[in-house]
Design goal:
Elements (H helix, E strand, L loop, with lengths): L5 E3 L2 E4 L3 H12 L4 E5 L13 E3 L3 H11 L3 H8 E7 L9 E6 L1 H13 L4 E5 L2 E9 L2 E9 L4 E3 L2 E4 L8 E4 L2 E3 L12 H7 L4 E8 L2 E3 L9 E3 L24 E5 L2 H9 L5 H4 L13 H7 L7 E6 L6 E5 L7 H9 L9 E3 L2 E8 L13 E2 L1 E3 L9 H19 L13 H11 L24 H12 L4 H23 L1 E2 L3 H9 L11 E2 H5 L21 H12 L1 H18 L17 H10 L4 H5 L6 H18 L1
Parallel strand pairs: 1-10, 2-3, 2-11, 3-7, 9-22, 11-23
Antiparallel strand pairs: 4-6, 5-6, 8-9, 9-10, 12-13, 12-21, 14-21, 15-19, 15-20, 16-17, 17-18, 18-19, 24-25
Helix pairs in contact: 1-10, 2-10, 2-12, 3-4, 6-9, 12-13, 13-16
Length: about 625
């Protein structure tokens, strides 16, 4: 009799964080029998760090994920306790929605969704080994083994292990081999991955202390309220259907006393003593890093954010640290409003194993292990949102591959998701990767507000956007087109009513003129589509998302047209495919560094080759000549 369990699934997902949930939901909803493993069922959709979803550029990712048929946007729309649009003083390209979450409610809602999805099974077990077989060009995945010896067979496996691989939590002299929030670490899978030839590295992240709200003097802080207009992340939700009282956040600052406490104890920081070997995120540094690297800065912002309605715990955003407990205590209490603060949970750094994502194809499948995919913080990225979108794409591609369909790759002109994945698999990264609007070359086209216009059709074609949702989207497109056409043809005459309106908003009057189109008026910096309603008696009743698009499409038409021309050039280079079996060492004219980098990354096309660090424009010219010679040979 066999002493071990043996089961078979279409898709195996290892990990149940934000990447794991999206991967498992996508594959199960596409009809594949899917199992999701987690070291603890209580860690499904866990938010171990910040209590929010979205933010600068991250809001774009959540909206794109929703447009494709993912779950995160719908879940945070149920679980938010405050919502705010960031960067509203700037152009629409960088407007980013951010929502404070009730952590427990978010976890509860996502777990409920996962547990009630057909074809999706949850197992609490530690995956310790990958089962593979040798094939011509490497290995092929056949399943996984758990630490109890149970065998689960599958042709497709998606790794979404987050920060759990050989995880170590550290503050001061305290070092515990656990995952976040004291959950079990996964201590066996790394060895199996390395045995299969996967290159592994060590990264670090951290989280601030949590304090009891009853011990905070909010009167010494600046109140940060949410927006009056509640804008949902999900394109399936209408703001008028969301009624909720919003909870405030609070702003305070570090001071010279705080900085002196840190400087006096910097030798006790494991970051500076050498105890922490992993590389931390540049764009989310610890407070000790900020103080030591920016000595001239007199203060740093600290946002006090509620962890939810269920608890008194407040998150000290901006005060991430791995300093000893007594130093943390003194440091926190040196800050205005926190003089009597009671720390509920100490801040800590966490070290974990992750991979060099250059080992992946743009589909997130390993180049050398057929059927094995990787997503989230395992790929060297940071953040809930970055993890979720990678999980979704890996889950979709694993499922489509299992069904014998073409896999989906979004390029840099399609979505922030495309920028994120292309950066991870193409560029060398020596620290946790964080999405930023500045990373996207075509950010005027990749706005948060038009994510559905860019991606809804793809989500529908995949099978994760319902016919009903898609019909509503098509109705929206028609309304936008019709209203833009009306604005281009409707003329504002040089009459008293129009000139009184223009005068009111300090706009140039229409004197002795035949009049101008309403679209021309919208393009004036001081005017917009909403304001023109005062002189537009024929204006139809339109949903707010339609009105928003009409305004942006007209106002920024020239810039958008220019960026579309740039995309055309970009697509040309992306369309020049490179052979998969090419050995770049055999191409004369390529510099040695370019040969090495090209053989390492194995770019799919000329465009991707040009984004590899160490590949020069001269090297690209050599590749273009090579492709031309290949084409001539074929002809």
């Amino acid at each position: 009799m066999n002493n071990h369990i043996e089961e078979e699934f279409d898709i195996i997902v290892v990990g149940a964080g934000h990447a794991g949930c999206e991967a498992a939901l996508a594959s199960a909803r596409l009809g594949l029998k899917t199992v999701m493993f987690t070291v603890s069922v209580d860690s499904i959709a866990l938010m171990p760090c910040n209590p929010n979803i979205g933010g600068t550029s991250k809001g774009h990712l959540v909206c794109e994920l929703d447009a494709l048929g993912g779950e995160m946007g719908k879940c945070i729309d149920k679980a938010f306790i405050q919502t705010k649009m960031l960067n509203v003083s700037k152009g629409p390209a960088v407007h980013s929605l951010r929502a404070q979450a009730d952590k427990q409610f978010y976890i509860h809602e996502m777990r409920k969704t996962v547990e009630n999805t057909d074809n999706l099974y949850i197992k609490q077990a530690e995956v310790s080994e990958l089962i593979t077989e040798e094939i011509k060009d490497g290995l092929k995945i056949n399943g996984v083994v758990t630490s109890s010896g149970a065998v689960y067979k599958s042709k497709k496996v998606v790794l979404c292990t987050g920060v759990y691989l050989n995880a170590r939590c550290i503050y001061g002299d305290v070092s515990e081999y656990t995952g976040p929030n004291g959950l079990r670490a996964a201590n066996h899978l790394t060895k199996s991955m390395m045995d299969k030839g996967i290159s592994v590295r060590r990264f670090k992240t951290g989280t601030p202390a949590r304090v009891d709200s009853r011990s905070i003097d909010f009167s010494k802080m600046e109140e940060q309220k949410g927006d009056d207009f509640i804008r949902p992340f999900s394109f399936s939700n209408d703001p008028w259907d969301i009624e909720k009282d919003q909870v405030s956040c609070w702003l305070t600052y570090t001071n010279e006393d705080t900085h002196n406490i840190i400087r006096d104890n910097i030798d006790r920081s494991p970051l500076y003593s050498g105890d922490i070997k992993g590389t931390g995120p540049r764009y989310c540094p610890s407070i000790e890093d900020k103080v030591m690297k920016f000595p001239d800065k007199e203060r740093h912002q600290i946002f006090i954010e509620p962890e939810g309605l269920y608890t008194n715990e407040m998150y000290l955003s901006g005060l991430s640290s791995s300093l000893p407990e007594d130093v943390q205590h003194a440091m926190v209490r040196s800050i205005k409003g926190l003089e009597n603060a009671q720390i509920v949970r100490n801040a800590y750094a966490i070290e974990y194993d992750c991979i060099d994502a250059n080992q992946l194809k743009p589909t997130l499948e390993f180049k050398r292990i057929e059927g094995l995919y990787s997503a989230g913080q395992l790929n060297g990225s940071s953040g809930y949102e970055e993890a979720a979108v990678q999980g979704f794409m890996a889950g979709v591609n694993a499922a489509r591959s299992a069904l014998g369909k073409d896999e989906i790759v979004l390029d840099r002109s399609d979505a922030y998701i495309g920028v994120l994945i292309d950066d991870l698999v193409t560029k060398e990264s020596f620290e946790p990767y964080r999405m930023m609007t500045s990373r996207a070359e075509y950010r005027l086209l990749l706005r948060q507000d038009n994510a559905d216009i860019r991606l809804r059709k793809i989500g529908h074609d995949i099978g994760l956007v319902s016919d009903e949702e898609y019909e509503a989207f098509e109705d929206k497109l028609k309304m936008i087109a019709d209203e833009i056409s009306r604005m281009e043809t409707k003329i504002a005459g040089s009459n008293q009513r129009v000139n009184d309106f223009l005068n009111k908003y300090n706009s140039a009057l229409l004197e002795n003129s035949k009049g101008v189109s309403f679209a021309s008026l919208i393009r004036r910096p001081e005017l917009n589509y909403e304001l023109l309603e005062e002189i537009d008696d024929e204006r139809p009743e339109l949903p707010w998302r339609v009105r928003e698009q009409v305004n942006i499409e007209i106002k920024y038409e020239g810039y958008i047209r220019r960026q579309l021309q740039q995309v055309k050039q970009f697509k040309k280079l992306e369309g020049k495919k490179l052979p998969k079996d090419i050995d770049y060492k055999e191409l004369s004219g390529l510099r040695i560094e370019a040969q090495q980098k090209l053989n390492l990354i194995k770019p799919e096309n000329i465009g991707q080759a040009g984004r590899i660090s160490g590949v020069s424009p001269a090297d690209i010219s050599v590749l273009l000549i090579y492709l031309e010679q290949l084409r001539n040979k074929k002809e």
